[in-house]
Specification:
Strand content: 25-35%
Distance between the termini: 46 Å
Shape: globular
Number of strands: 7
CATH superfamily: Vaccinia Virus protein VP39
Number of domains: 1
CATH topology: Rossmann fold
Radius of gyration: 16 Å
Low-confidence stretches: none
Mean pLDDT: 89
């Protein structure tokens, strides 16, 4: 069986290592919600893996009873491990759940209207990212914001290039085109020479 880059043990280890923190500082995520810490927040972490983002946001929003994070992944073993990590960190504001088929992304009916949707290095793992942008509309609130982090195609990071080869990555340009074609408006882009990642922010387009 062929193991895809995002499924490899080396890559999953990288995502919870100090190397990841050096490549993508925690503040890149924490600053997004810094001005909304007391507001009602429904957050979804898509392709959560071992829960790096969910744990960060869970700790940040720990004192907000109106905030909750839903973390999903199609690898069931990772969801099981994330439950254990949540118990270890005593976080009760994160609910992991399993998506059984990455080619047909469906969400449980109990998921509320999401107002912050995170794709953190996860779009390369789905069969059809274009299709996912359409599918998630069913659970987005009218004011939802998409937050997309992904690896720069030309990142000059020897270790990253080893565990997640360039040919397996999506580019910011392609993702921006797909977002616009599926009814979103890109409101912010961050990409600079020397960074290992890029960031896109988008919202539903209101004609």
């Amino acid at each position: 069986m062929i193991i895809k880059a995002h499924e490899s043990v080396d890559y999953q280890d990288f995502l919870t290592s100090d190397y990841r923190e050096l490549s993508v500082p925690a503040d890149a995520y924490l600053k997004i919600l810094r001005d909304q810490l007391d507001e009602p927040l429904q957050i979804l972490d898509f392709g959560c893996g071992l829960g790096y983002v969910s744990l960060l946001l869970g700790e940040q929003l720990k004192k907000n009873p109106q905030a909750h994070i839903y973390a999903c992944d199609y690898q069931e073993d990772l969801i099981d491990l994330l439950w254990k990590r949540l118990v270890h960190h005593n976080l009760k504001n994160v609910t992991p759940f399993h998506i059984p088929d990455r080619s047909l992304v469906n969400f449980p009916k109990w998921i509320p209207g999401i107002n912050h949707f995170f794709f953190s290095f996860s779009l390369s793992a789905v069969e059809d990212a274009f299709k996912v942008f359409n599918t998630i509309k069913s659970i987005l609130s009218e004011t939802a914001v998409l937050h997309i982090f992904d690896w720069e195609h030309d990142a000059n990071n020897e270790y990253l290039n080893k565990v997640f080869p360039k040919e397996d990555r999506l580019t910011a340009m392609i993702l921006q085109q797909w977002l616009e074609l599926t009814g979103y408006k890109v409101t912010r882009t961050e990409s600079s020479k020397g960074k290992d990642y890029f960031y896109l922010e988008a919202e539903l387009f209101a004609p």
